[in-house]
């Protein structure tokens, strides 16, 4: 929806949240002139402020885990807080309002909030928005029809973020997409440094990086390898840093831009997140519009990759695909917040400047559904799995003095604590499903002006994650209440690890807690799904999340050895063997590898695969 925004334009600098959000008095309904800082819009800034409040949330989570109705538990907590508020009001009559507020904060953890946040009101009516969007869909359908006359392939795609986890899968699937004639990948030069001296020994050109990427994606000998072209650019620069000659060449060829470059760091600053996720989006949108209006343009659509978590903590109703409202409990981190700002700006750009746009919003993206292959990714869900695996190895490691073994066991037991409420649900979606949706959107003009959640309808609870990790990694992961862990347990663990001279482990666990302490709390958003099937034509049923997570654990354990295998060429070699092995197992058993028990799968792979060399034990059938 188009939002009324303030000046100056964000196309040149990092803008404050007040460009998008306003603070409103609960008493008068008036917009308050108070400064809104980015931290004010995060969940934990306004919630983790008192030990009693933290402990109350711990008790609430226990009540839900014991089988209590989540909404009923919330209602009871609201009743308790109302009783406390009445007590504070009584104190106000006896000792004065100012003193009563101070006492209430100190003893009871009450923090008076006589305001709420909302997104700035739309400038256009719903009818005007629908009319403009419908016109853009008709325009996209007409142009696409003209482009796809005659025999294919027809499409030329400009891609940002091609070296990232999602971008690699886009390139891999595009190779076999018969509708794509050319894919132009924007990529930066890369400095290669000596590991010891840190001196630059070589600067890889975009073309060198691109050819290396094709080799690692098993496309070096592929018949379609010539459809890929790698050009120098930078999303944080105007025109994406492309040369004038390159922009002129693209002007008469490009039919789509896929913008998937972004910062996915959950603990980065607001400024860094804004530059990557909002200013980067503006640069991509500007270039798409330039190409659309260039003489001889064939341009059809700009495909923007967002996240389903732009809805923040939407706990009272499903997060709708077609609407963004300010979340009642706010945002988990600046990644979510700035991706939402980017999505709002994309809406505005589309409706004000007439650029056909499709917005695709993946949930938490993990490896391939069948095999777990992730091309070396070690972030997000892979991070705790690798931590658990390394902790298991430390617990089983023989040798050393009694003191060393004891220390290793203490550290390992600290590392297998996961901040997660048993009932909290994570929305995991395999990367192949996400990219299937992205490429489907290229030929679906009905997706223009539509926001599509690329998510699942069978989410995985923290309890299920703990159970599967126990079966697949053979380590007993201990769940701890996230709010209590973040505010009480983690500070203590950090001090203990620092005293044991383990600053890296302390930092890793702190980062793990800050990330999953948010996404594994109870009351997580439920993302509405439907447009993935109805608009994009993706098949049903959606991927089985338990199978997906099992294969993620197996891949991290056997292929990447819990993050120890870092060389991308070696990972590429191993993943090719792994994919063949999974296919062989599925052909013989007649069922998905993810459906097999951990023991049965382990028995089959150890019989056929030499884990030391990661090669087949004998000739393949």
Spell out the blueprint of helices and strands.
Blueprint: E1 21-25, E2 31-32, H1 43-47, H2 51-65, H3 70-95, H4 97-108, E3 115-119, H5 126-147, E4 155-160, H6 165-174, E5 180-187, E6 190-193, E7 200-204, H7 206-216, E8 228-232, H8 244-251, E9 256-259, H9 270-293, E10 301-305, H10 334-353, E11 357-362, E12 364-366, H11 382-396, H12 402-415, E13 417-419, E14 425-426, E15 428-430, H13 431-441, E16 451-454, E17 460-461, H14 462-472, E18 478-480, H15 482-499, H16 503-519, H17 531-534, H18 545-559, H19 568-589, H20 598-608, E19 609-610, E20 615-616
Parallel strand pairs: 4-5, 4-9, 5-8, 9-10, 10-11, 11-16, 12-15, 13-18
Antiparallel strand pairs: 1-2, 1-3, 6-7, 14-17, 19-20
Helix pairs in contact: 2-3, 2-15, 3-4, 6-13, 8-9, 9-10, 11-12, 11-18, 14-18, 15-16
Would you give an account of this structure?
- This protein has a seven-stranded parallel beta sheet with strand order 8-5-4-9-10-11-16, with helices on both faces.
- It folds into three domains: about 15-120, no CATH class; about 125-365 and about 430-455, 3-Layer(aba) Sandwich (Rossmann fold); about 380-425 and about 460-565, no CATH class.
- The radius of gyration is 26 Å and the shape is globular.
- The protein contains 20 helices and 20 strands.
- The termini are far apart.
- The protein has about 625 residues and is α/β, with parallel strands linked by helices.
């Amino acid at each position: 929806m188009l939002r009324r925004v303030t000046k100056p334009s964000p196309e040149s600098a990092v803008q404050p949240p007040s460009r998008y959000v306003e603070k409103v008095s609960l008493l008068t309904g008036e917009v308050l002139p108070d400064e809104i800082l980015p931290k004010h819009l995060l969940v934990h800034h306004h919630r983790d402020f008192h030990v009693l409040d933290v402990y109350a949330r711990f008790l609430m989570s226990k009540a839900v885990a014991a089988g209590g109705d989540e909404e009923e538990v919330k209602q009871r907590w609201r009743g308790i807080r109302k009783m406390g508020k009445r007590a504070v009001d009584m104190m106000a009559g006896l000792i004065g309002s100012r003193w009563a507020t101070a006492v209430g904060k100190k003893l009871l953890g009450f923090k008076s909030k006589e305001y709420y946040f909302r997104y700035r009101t739309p400038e256009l009516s719903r009818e005007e928005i629908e009319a403009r969007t419908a016109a853009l869909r008709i325009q996209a359908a007409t142009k696409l029809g003209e482009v796809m006359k005659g025999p294919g392939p027809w499409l030329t795609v400009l891609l940002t973020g091609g070296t990232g986890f999602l971008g690699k899968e886009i390139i891999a699937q595009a190779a076999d997409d018969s509708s794509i004639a050319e894919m132009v990948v924007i990529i930066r030069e890369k400095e290669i440094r000596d590991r010891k001296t840190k001196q630059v020994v070589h600067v890889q050109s975009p073309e060198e990086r691109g050819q290396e990427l094709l080799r690692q994606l098993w496309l070096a000998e592929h018949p379609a390898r010539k459809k890929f072209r790698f050009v120098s650019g930078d999303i944080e620069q105007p025109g994406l840093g492309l040369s004038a000659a390159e922009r002129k060449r693209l002007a008469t060829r490009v039919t789509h831009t896929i913008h998937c470059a972004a910062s996915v760091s959950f603990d980065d600053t607001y400024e860094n997140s804004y530059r990557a996720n909002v200013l980067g989006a503006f640069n991509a949108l500007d270039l798409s519009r330039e190409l659309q209006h260039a003489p001889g343009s064939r341009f059809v659509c700009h495909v923007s990759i967002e996240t389903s978590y732009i809805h923040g903590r939407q706990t009272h109703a499903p997060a709708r695909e077609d609407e963004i409202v300010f979340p009642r409990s706010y945002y988990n981190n600046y990644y979510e917040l700035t991706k939402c700002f980017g999505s709002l700006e994309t809406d505005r750009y589309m409706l004000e400047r007439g650029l056909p746009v499709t917005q695709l919003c993946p949930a938490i993206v993990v490896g391939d559904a069948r095999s777990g292959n992730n091309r070396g990714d070690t972030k997000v869900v892979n991070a705790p799995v690798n931590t658990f695996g390394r902790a298991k190895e430390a617990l089983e490691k023989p040798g050393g003095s009694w003191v060393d073994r004891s220390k290793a066991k203490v550290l390992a037991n600290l590392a297998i604590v996961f901040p997660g409420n048993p009932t909290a649900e994570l929305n995991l979606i395999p990367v192949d499903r996400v990219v299937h949706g992205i490429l489907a959107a290229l030929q679906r003009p009905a997706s223009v002006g539509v926001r599509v959640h690329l998510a699942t309808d069978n989410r995985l609870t923290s309890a299920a994650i703990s159970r599967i990790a126990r079966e697949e990694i053979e380590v007993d992961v201990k769940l701890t209440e996230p709010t209590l862990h973040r505010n009480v347990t983690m500070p203590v663990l950090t001090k203990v690890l620092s005293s044991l001279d383990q600053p890296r482990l302390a930092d890793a666990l702190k980062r793990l807690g800050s990330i999953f302490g948010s996404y594994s709390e109870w009351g997580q958003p439920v993302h509405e799904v439907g447009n993935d099937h109805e608009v994009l034509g993706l098949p049903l049923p959606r991927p089985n999340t338990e199978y997906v997570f099992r294969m993620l654990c197996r891949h991290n354990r056997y292929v990447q050895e819990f993050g120890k295998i870092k060389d991308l060429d070696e990972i590429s070699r191993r993943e090719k063997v792994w994919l063949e092995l999974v296919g062989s197992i599925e052909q013989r058993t007649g069922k998905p590898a993810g459906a097999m028990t951990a023991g049965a799968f382990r028995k089959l792979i150890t019989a056929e695969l030499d884990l030391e060399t990661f090669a087949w034990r004998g000739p393949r059938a």
